[in-house]
Amino acid sequence: MGSYVHWVVYNLPASTAGLPEGLPTTPTLENGAVQGVSGRGTSGYHGPCPPPGPAHHYHFRLYALDGKLNLAAGANADEVEQALKGHVLASAELVGTFAR
Length: 100
Hints:
Elements: E1 9-10, E2 34-35, E3 56-65, H1 77-84, E4 88-98
Antiparallel strand pairs: 1-2, 3-4
């Protein structure tokens, strides 16, 4: 089935220590962060909903950059990955599993 992107968000302020539940699906968030489009073609977080069977792996990636990305709201994951090339200072990845 391949990969599915559940959420694209970029230009989070460096001071961000967490995100509250129930963020709006607006192109920009109150803190100035920008949302791209998910695999659904819409903005906002879409939680896990794997088909029955073995557990699926969910990768959450976070990048510290040397500045903001020059992307308008609505960029997809591939566009964000291309734009961050050469600007990554550090990165982290959390992998969770979920099954029904």
